[in-house]
Write the structure tokens for this entry.
Amino acid sequence: MTIQNQNTDKNLDSTQKVRTLLTIGRYFKERFGTRVRKIPISLQGFTCPNIDGSKARGGCIYCCNESFSPSLKKLDSTIKIKMNFTLKKNPILDTQLTQLEQQFYWHSNFHKEKFNVQKYMIYFQSYSNTYAPFDTLKTLYDKALSLPNVIGLSIGTRTDCIEPKLLDLLSSYVDEGFEIWIEYGVQSVFDQTLKLINRAENMQNAPALFKATREKGIKVCAHLIYGLPNESQEMMLHSLQSVLSWGVDGLKLHPLYVVENTHLAKMYKKGEYKPISLQDYGNLIVESLKIIPPEIVIQRISSGAHEPSLLAPKWCFDKNIQMRYLRDLLWEIGIWY
Ligand code: SF4
């Protein structure tokens, strides 16, 4: 007897067990009994300590937030003020609150009308979303949680941008019944790689931070990038093993791609950087999923930029092709994605 994957016509023999991957969609469905959509939010004024000069300038060599988040392109470019921990007064807080509401209603109405989605999680996506005065963060998070049918927050940030009182605040939302995630950008655990990509941080404190975060009832999702310059497959899998050993609730794995107007683009054009192939990336995803425990929520295994600024690899232009390829590979090892 065989089990057939209807998408691919590929068969497994009946002795092979099929495991359904715990994607974020399936996790939400199990946890809330209905579909939940993450609503990406990009607000004016957020930045990063490796962009504003407090640790470095220029940001990560691949960083182009506009390509990660189309909402950023629509923000008012005449507003120059940037957030950090020491800013005494935030003169653009009202603007940020308005943008939060506008983006929420635009996305939630779309998903409600098109896909009948009834519940939402607010995802603070662009830049480091905890790198701002505490009062600003509290006002924005309170507002986000007051919006209709919002079940919680997911906050993207760096491991060097967390103040202890922020964890206490987020923990108080958990106590009120909200689902709170922090998405920590790790990318690699190797100092030489983090230096090369101008990350301006190391992962020395990350294990303790992950532990402290989870002890407060906040869920941790770690981001890793496969295909960083000078990294071997063994190094990438070592980074994965490391974050698993620190303790995580979710993972986002994605390939590095090159977009225009970045330092990585210059390296690529000079022949100093060779992007990862789809085959190598696929093999890494297969090897990764063999070691990731089944209870960890897989929030992402693919990534791309469907726009002309994408230089390489070209397979990152079409996420559907990427997903079909990865689905087929995973099916061959008995994982239903
Ligand atoms: S940490 Fe994120 S937002 Fe900041 S420079 Fe790097 S990629 Fe860009």
Residues 93-115 form the longest helix (23 residues). The domain at 15-336 is CATH 3.80.30.30 (pyruvate-formate lyase- activating enzyme). The chain has a mean pLDDT of 93. The chain has one domain: 15-336.
